[in-house]
Amino acid sequence: MTTPTPTDAPPTRPPGSPWPIPDAAAFLSISERHLHRLLDANKVKSVRLGRRRLIPDAEVQRLARDGC
Fold this sequence. Notes:
3 helices; Molybdopterin biosynthesis moea protein, domain 2
């Protein structure tokens, strides 16, 4: 029997689901303030869900790939 590795662990969030700003910032290793600045400058797309502002998964992946 092998010990499970982190890649064997189930994902904590469903693929394709939008990211809350704190989670996206932590994943991208940037501050929440920097992410808010990118949002305010229209360099990152976001969606509103009630009062919450969420970052689409495709945007987070684009930022991770291309840089902030």
